Amino acid sequence: MNVQLKVFLFLVLFSILHFGYDITHLAFLKPFCGISESVFQHLKMVFWAYLLANVTEYLFVKKKLTNRDSFWFSRLFITVQLPWFIVLVWYLAPSIFGRFTSALIDIIWAIVSSYVSALFGVLVERNLEKWEFNLSFKAVTIILLVISAFFYVWCTYYPPYIDLFVNPELLPK
């Protein structure tokens, strides 16, 4: 799949997960969709959106693949990492310029930082795909993927008291 197409697919899937629960209020969507504007909820949506983008990509390229292991482990590794890429890129602007004073600027920066982060993720996975992964890398990737999936589902229902889970809409301005 073309790099730009995959980034676009990720952004579309992320948008669906961002608004999916708000629009439908279907309880089974809570583990995958955002249910508040907390940092955690956004990390969760990134994780699931990228995993879905990988599955979609696989459906389009599976007949052309020469090494399924390298395809999947490069993508699963980035699925675990991409939420943290977005934290690094998104927080760059607020750390330099402070709180956004305009909702429009906030939204534009969110889209740009999500695009850039996803682009970084796809570029890294394309390089990783050329590697032969040993058993320890595969094991660590699977363990981190399972921990991440558990973390995003469990903490949706039982968020620990850490600022990562705080809904910024509830903070005083």
UniProtKB/TrEMBL annotation:
Protein name, entry field: Uncharacterized protein
Q: Which UniProt keywords apply?
A: Membrane, Transmembrane, Transmembrane helix
**What's the short name of a Pfam family annotated to this entry?**
DUF6512
Q: Which domain of life is it from?
A: Bacteria
Give the transmembrane region(s). 45-61, 73-93, 99-123, 135-154
